[in-house]
Amino acid sequence: MTGTALLALIALGTVGGAHLLSKARWTWTMPRAGIALWQALGLAWGVATIGALLGYALLPYGQGITGGIPAALADGAARMEVHHLAALLSGVGLTVVLLAVLVYALVRMERARRRHRALLELVAGQNAAVPGTLVLDHPAAAAYCVPGVRSSKVVVSAGTLELLDADELAAVLAHERAHARERHDLVLLPFASLRHAFPQIRLVDRCLDAVELLIEMAADDRARRHRSPRELATALLRFAAARPVAAPSGALSVAGDQPAVLARVDRLLRPTPPHRGIRAATLIAIPLLAVVPFLLYHLPV
Known about the structure:
Elements: H1 2-23, H2 31-57, H3 64-74, H4 82-123, E1 124-126, E2 134-136, E3 143-146, E4 153-157, H5 158-163, H6 166-182, H7 184-197, H8 202-223, H9 229-242, E5 252-253, H10 258-269, H11 276-296
Parallel strand pairs: 2-4
Antiparallel strand pairs: 1-2, 3-4, 3-5
Helix pairs in contact: 1-2, 1-8, 2-4, 2-8, 2-11, 4-7, 6-8, 6-9, 7-8, 9-10
GO molecular function: metal ion binding; metalloendopeptidase activity
Transmembrane segments: 6-24, 36-59, 85-107, 277-299
């Protein structure tokens, strides 16, 4: 039962880790590493939870998961009792649910983007002041990107052109292009699908909020390679004061809720370098979380 017990401990540990990480602020000093840690944590939770259920179900065969599955198929699960079969069905069911909500979220996102791209062809146009960017004839502030495999669209409103000066606008566009270039929408997808699978669990919402904030900070970091941090910070404050229009479904916007915007502005104006020890521990934890649960599938009883 060693492999099964370890998988169960990892599954419980990842839940506790997600609770702590959702409240952490040190990830703000290295958002890309923080995002990777969240991804590894989510993967470890899914693999470990499913593995613990399958491992318990296959205990009568004493060969772990990878050895127990062929043995169970060979004898038609004859050695399994009711509680083993219940664990087997739970493990298979959880796998199906997680994959189904992931596919559903992906399909829904692509449909929303396809509809919005079609709408943009009708209501948005080019403007010489912002080449390569679509401009909506709308007085409210709006700036977002619609990511895509072959082409991504960066969209701003006429209200944004009036709200920001040229430098601030350039910083906002650099932020949106960072979202599109790094495909932050795909980073968010598994966490958004978890919220569809477990809508009543508050921790899932906190995890999604934490990852969304780190993604915005990562885009801020990429934008400030080319623009002054103060330009982007000022643009964020102007957006927050103007109460921008929410981005459409499937898009990523430069502006978020006010606490998140203030945290980003403070970070831009008063950057804090990551602690070397924490950074090293994070970079070690990421591959361990991603790999160890899979290795335990091969561990016999």
